[in-house]
């Protein structure tokens, strides 16, 4: 997606929820639900929130997050998650749209990384206007 396309993404907020900025205090919640969680990821997530940005959704008049997304170290969106009992309500789409628009307004090329087996997220991102441009491989080194 180009910056211009990102600027044209329509935000679709919902009246029953509030969209807020992620704060460092949200990092443990994000970490506990992240598929790639290790004993070291909490510091990584705190860094993403502190040095980049992220957005969360909470129900109006509630404090607990029900969904979130963050800009990762490589500049794109990641860690998108909606708690199971709040899925199928468009919250993930709302977050990806917000992240996309925010990146574009900052003159950053909007991008996301999605697991190749995550068909729901792939469809969601394609619906917003993203397209697959390459495969990314992660290499993990473990200290023994």
Automatic annotation (TrEMBL):
<dbReference type="Pfam" id="PF08445">
    <property type="entry name" value="FR47"/>
</dbReference>
<dbReference type="InterPro" id="IPR013653">
    <property type="entry name" value="GCN5-like_dom"/>
</dbReference>
<dbReference type="InterPro" id="IPR000182">
    <property type="entry name" value="GNAT_dom"/>
</dbReference>
<dbReference type="InterPro" id="IPR053225">
    <property type="entry name" value="Acyl-CoA_N-acyltransferase"/>
</dbReference>
<dbReference type="GO" id="GO:0016747">
    <property type="term" value="F:acyltransferase activity, transferring groups other than amino-acyl groups"/>
</dbReference>
<dbReference type="InterPro" id="IPR016181">
    <property type="entry name" value="Acyl_CoA_acyltransferase"/>
</dbReference>
<feature type="domain" description="N-acetyltransferase">
    <location>
        <begin position="9"/>
        <end position="144"/>
    </location>
</feature>
<protein>
    <recommendedName>
        <fullName>N-acetyltransferase domain-containing protein</fullName>
    </recommendedName>
</protein>
């Amino acid at each position: 997606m180009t910056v211009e396309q990102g600027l044209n993404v329509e935000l679709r907020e919902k009246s029953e929820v509030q969209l807020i900025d992620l704060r460092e205090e949200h990092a443990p919640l994000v970490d506990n639900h992240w598929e790639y969680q290790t004993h070291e990821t909490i510091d990584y997530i705190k860094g993403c929130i502190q040095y980049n940005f992220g957005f969360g959704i909470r129900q109006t008049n509630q404090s607990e997050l029900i969904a979130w997304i963050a800009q990762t170290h490589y500049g794109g969106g990641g860690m998108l998650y909606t708690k199971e009992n709040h899925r199928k309500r468009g919250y993930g789409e709302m977050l990806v749209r917000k992240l996309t628009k925010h990146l574009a307004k900052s003159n950053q090329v909007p991008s996301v990384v999605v697991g190749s087996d995550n068909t729901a997220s792939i469809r969601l991102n394609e619906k917003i206007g993203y397209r697959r441009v390459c495969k990314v491989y992660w290499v993990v080194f473990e200290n023994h």
